[in-house]
Amino acid sequence: MDIMQELYRVIMDRKANPVEGSYTNYLMEKGTEKIAKKVGEEAVETAIAAAKRDKKEVIAELADMQYHMLVLMADMGITLDDLYGELESRR
User: Fold this and answer.
1) How wide is the angle at C-alpha 43 spanned by C-alphas 32 and 14, nearest 5°?
2) Which of 27, 31, 60, 61 is the most exposed place for a label (fewest CB within 10 A)?
3) Is 7 within 8 Å of 24 (Cβ atoms)?
4) How far apart are CA 91 and CA 84, in angstroms?
5) Which CATH number fits domain 24-84: 1.10.287.1080, 1.10.10.10, 3.40.50.150, 3.90.700.10?
6) pLDDT digits (tens, 9 = 90+) for 40-90
């Protein structure tokens, strides 16, 4: 299984079956606005790392951004198939 699919599956499982102390559940409890702010924060941190040309930091920040993006998708009922379909339509 692709890592994005696996991570999305775990996030969806946390949404359906909350786990005390889970960061994913913390974000879900705070709601869409908090999740969206985290996506934006991680995007800015990625851009700053890129401007510094720090490849290792860019990779770490991209991973953070991808995670928060998947949480936002799960929160809004957007699937990976929805995302992939949009990307395919742009080819």
Assistant:
1) 40
2) 31
3) no
4) 11
5) 1.10.287.1080
6) 999 999 999 999 999 999 999 999 999 999 999 999 999 999 999 999 999
